[in-house]
Amino acid sequence: MVSNAAVALAAVAAPAGMLAGLAAARRRAGGAAITVGVPLPGQAALALIAAVAVLALGWQRAQGAPGLLGSRLGHLVLATVAVLLLTALAAAWLHSRATGRAAQAPWRHAAAMLLGALALLAGLLAAAIAWQPEEALAIAHWPFAWRFDPDLPVGTQTWRRLWLAAGLTGLALALLLAALFARRGRLVWLTAAAGLLACASWPAPQLLMTEATRTSYQRSPLAFTDRNVLQGGRLYQAHCAGCHGAQADGRGPLAAGLPAWPSVLGPALFENRLEGELHWRVAHGGDGRGGASAMPGFGAALGPDEIWQVLDYLRLRAYGVSGGMGMPAIPAPGVAVTCRDGRATTLAGLRGLPLWIGAAAASASAPNAMQEPLDPRLLTVALTWGGGYSADGNSAGADCVASGEDAWNAYALAAGVPPDALAGAQFMVDRRGWLRARRLPGAAPAWTSADNVCGPGGRMENTSAQGLGALLLAMDRAPIGIPDTRRWQ
Ligand code: HEC
Description:
Helix content: 40-55%
Bound molecules: heme C
CATH topology of the largest domain: Glutaredoxin
Order of helices and strands: HHHHHEHHHEHHHHHEEEEEHEEEEH
Low-confidence stretches: 32-36, 390-394
Strand order of the largest sheet: 4-3-7-6-5-8-9
CATH architecture of the largest domain: 3-Layer(aba) Sandwich
CATH class of the largest domain: Alpha Beta
């Protein structure tokens, strides 16, 4: 993955080169007066190449347009690109005007100062990019009323119209540039550009895009921990269950009396929807299309973080119900653990190693996840609440032990079973902390493709992985690409 430093390096390379070029020109001139021409075409090309490189790297770093347009890091990248483009334009324009005036030292001096200042500004922005923390990738606001939706079917007619409009607009921009550089007939160029812009007929946005809200691309900033999720569960039962039902099946006691049936808040809710838009719906209520609806807004009753907790609860619940089929990836719920060396840490503190999490049984007759020998490449974590194990973990045979009641209950949600039926359930977590596969008590004696492995796109898909070793390989071979921008606990 591209790092901040790589983006910053690309952003600082051009200004550094330009300043070096200006300094060299000055040295060649011998002292204060620049008598040799400033290498303008070279400067323009350098700035242009840098702008393209910064945009490409920034796009990767911010994971696409939403990140570029909505996050602090994205804004810095766009500002840098704008300054670099301006620099390229300024250098090219100065070059086009240089003949005749180039002989005058004050003119060249001013040109060098202008380019130097722009290069310095780009350098400062590059430094700012390099210093941004990971949180600067979090998307704060989506600035538009529409957003691209990969699931929206778009007709060929619409595509053709789009390309035509884009082509005409591109041509108009080229004419505007020409007007900037033209020595004569500027009005003609400008009129032609305006004419082309007027001709470009863009397709209506709803043919290409879905309606968006300010929070569309926001993700929960909260750590996905047992405590946050269970707190979300309590809030859900207090505020939402009356209509949506204690099982989130849309059959609450109040449901029948409502003008519209409350939605089922199960796996389908998370299939093709953005978390940020669900947050908006809960905060603002309504049917999401501006019509009257029985869904009240909770923006006043619940804080933004509390709504994230409710959504995280529903997400984990949905994973439990469906095994994650079709849903975007979820992180393994974070829990407090104590490891063999006596070290107390959290699940997030164990990242970097693939984890096996098993719910230990209290009695010998119950199914026990710890019976089979495990792959030595795995770090094992035993959930032992109610099992009567000592906290040192040795009696459970695992590297680390999570003995809390919250931990047990959170993983019961992830397994989709009541807490007293969790013993024997097993989970696989990859090096980055994503929950990748599970095996429920009573399932076939080996990990199979049927009990879902989460693919690299972050969605659950079947793989042919058979057994733990193959599963481990499959997880490593196809890591999940989406960044986890949540706070670590
Ligand atoms: C007074 C009853 C009521 C309560 C209380 C209620 N809802 Fe709803 N909710 C509805 C109804 C009815 C709809 C369907 C809206 C429509 O399409 O008109 C809905 C829709 C939704 C949707 C949109 C589902 C979709 O597919 O777009 C979400 C998400 C949601 N509710 C979450 C919640 C949460 C979370 C809470 C608790 C904080 C809650 N609701 C409390 C009645 C309620």
